[in-house]
Protein backbone atom coordinates (compact mmCIF):
# COMPACT_ATOMS: atom_id res chain seq x y z
CA UNK A 1 0.00 0.00 0.00
CA UNK A 2 1.29 3.47 -0.87
CA UNK A 3 0.52 6.54 1.21
CA UNK A 4 1.19 10.00 -0.19
CA UNK A 5 1.04 13.51 1.18
CA UNK A 6 0.29 16.76 -0.63
CA UNK A 7 1.87 20.03 0.41
CA UNK A 8 1.54 23.52 -1.04
CA UNK A 9 4.56 25.64 -1.96
CA UNK A 10 5.07 28.97 -3.71
CA UNK A 11 7.81 29.65 -6.23
CA UNK A 12 8.77 32.79 -8.13
CA UNK A 13 10.83 33.58 -11.20
CA UNK A 14 11.71 36.77 -13.06
CA UNK A 15 11.62 34.76 -16.35
CA UNK A 16 8.28 32.95 -16.72
CA UNK A 17 5.58 30.81 -15.13
CA UNK A 18 7.29 27.73 -16.58
CA UNK A 19 10.56 28.67 -14.90
CA UNK A 20 8.76 29.25 -11.59
CA UNK A 21 7.27 25.75 -11.86
CA UNK A 22 10.68 24.25 -12.69
CA UNK A 23 12.33 26.04 -9.75
CA UNK A 24 9.55 25.03 -7.37
CA UNK A 25 9.65 21.36 -8.35
CA UNK A 26 13.45 21.30 -8.18
CA UNK A 27 13.47 22.83 -4.70
CA UNK A 28 10.73 20.49 -3.49
CA UNK A 29 12.65 17.48 -4.81
CA UNK A 30 15.82 18.71 -3.07
CA UNK A 31 13.95 18.94 0.26
CA UNK A 32 11.32 16.19 0.09
CA UNK A 33 11.90 12.51 -0.67
CA UNK A 34 9.82 10.65 -3.25
CA UNK A 35 8.22 13.60 -5.08
CA UNK A 36 5.94 12.06 -7.70
CA UNK A 37 3.83 14.92 -9.07
CA UNK A 38 2.89 18.58 -8.84
CA UNK A 39 0.13 20.74 -10.20
CA UNK A 40 -0.33 24.48 -10.44
CA UNK A 41 -3.04 25.69 -8.09
CA UNK A 42 -2.65 29.44 -8.77
CA UNK A 43 -0.62 31.80 -10.90
CA UNK A 44 0.01 35.50 -10.37
CA UNK A 45 2.44 38.21 -11.37
CA UNK A 46 4.02 41.09 -9.52
CA UNK A 47 3.91 44.30 -11.52
CA UNK A 48 6.43 47.13 -11.15
CA UNK A 49 6.31 50.30 -13.25
CA UNK A 50 3.67 48.80 -15.52
CA UNK A 51 5.73 45.69 -16.35
CA UNK A 52 5.80 42.14 -15.05
CA UNK A 53 8.60 41.90 -12.50
CA UNK A 54 8.04 38.35 -11.18
CA UNK A 55 5.92 35.33 -12.02
CA UNK A 56 4.58 33.35 -9.08
CA UNK A 57 2.98 29.91 -8.91
CA UNK A 58 1.43 28.08 -6.01
CA UNK A 59 2.12 24.39 -6.47
CA UNK A 60 0.52 21.38 -4.87
CA UNK A 61 3.33 18.84 -4.58
CA UNK A 62 2.65 15.13 -3.98
CA UNK A 63 5.26 12.90 -2.38
CA UNK A 64 5.10 9.30 -1.22
CA UNK A 65 5.75 8.67 2.47
CA UNK A 66 8.45 6.24 3.53
CA UNK A 67 7.37 2.97 5.12
TrEMBL record:
Name recorded for this polypeptide: Dodecin domain-containing protein
UniProt superkingdom: Bacteria
InterPro entries the UniProt entry points to: Dodecin (IPR009923), Dodecin-like (IPR025543), Dodecin-like_sf (IPR036694)
Organism: Aliiroseovarius zhejiangensis
Gene3D superfamilies: Flavin-binding protein dodecin
Pfam family, one: Dodecin
